[in-house]
Amino acid sequence: MNTLLPFQPDAMTAAQLAAVSYLARYSGHTHTLYSSQLRRWFAWCETNAIDPLIGIQRAHIELYIRHLGQAGLMASSVVTSMHAVRGYFRYAHIDGVIVSDPAVYARLPKVYRDESRTQGLDRLELIRFLQVAQTLSVHHGALAYLLGINALRASEAAAVRIEDYAETLRGHRVIHLVGKGNKPATMPITVPVLRVLEACRGERTEGRLILRPVSGNPIDRRDAYRMVARIAKAAAIPRHISPHSLRHAAITNALDAGVPLRDAQILARHSDPRTTEHYDRARGNLDRHGVHFLTAYVAGV
Length: 301
Fold this sequence. Notes:
The protein has 301 residues and is mainly α. It folds into 2 domains: 9-94; 123-284, hpI Integrase, Chain A (Orthogonal Bundle), CATH 1.10.443.10. Helix content is 53%, strand content 5%. The protein has helices spanning 14-23, 28-47, 58-70, 75-81, 83-94, 123-136, 138-148, 154-159, 191-201, 221-234, 243-256, 261-268, 273-284, 290-297, and strands at residues 168-169, 172-178, 184-188. A 3-stranded antiparallel beta sheet has the order 1-2-3, with no helix packed on it. Helix 1 (14-23) packs across helix 5, helix 7 runs antiparallel to helix 9 and helix 11 (243-256) runs antiparallel to helix 12. It is globular, with a radius of gyration of 23 Å. The model has no long low-confidence stretch (mean pLDDT 87).
């Protein structure tokens, strides 16, 4: 796995070819993550003197899962680390390289999520965050609104170009973007968001919208994290806030505002409604817990 590139099929084993074929489906951060996960699988197989693909049985997969747990990974990290390994065998089977998929019935550790610990920003915190961001710079303001109102991911917000929000459709100013999994999306831009984006644009007519305030170079994903952390500190929010915290806040506050779950799914651009439901449970566990209704019902005790 350490010498998969350049692509040299005549010099590669079946396992290496299958890995290259599988990883070719992905790009960017996903490609980097899955490459790392497969390298770990290949290294474990080398340590145990077994081929990473041919002759692998379910028992081998189970032992590898146990190895990940014994190495100190939490159950959720073990499940994440198996994404590429399971996909690798699934597509090797689909491509006819192996006769069966040994990972399909391998037992993964159960992950019990406590949604109540998933806390974004409440309404007042989000308002303060947006207000403070604009006082730091027009670039901080634009980033905050794209994350906290339009629920963009850090990489999506960093990639926004001035040309991306120049169009008007059916009376709505819209922004075009390419999201996770290279899925295109079109979203409306409300007047307050447009006002902030235009302030960031200034006299420019093209190119990346959000720039580093000092150097004037386009921001990247890491810059977005640093800028969000600076805004959170200036807004005196007493906990760690990341770009995803703002995306989380946009979705949960939309639900609190009465947006139907289906419309919140469209806002979040979740392909699976169960993902949006997770945000719904996260924001409702405390505020709408049945214990409040029961207490009111038996208030005389």
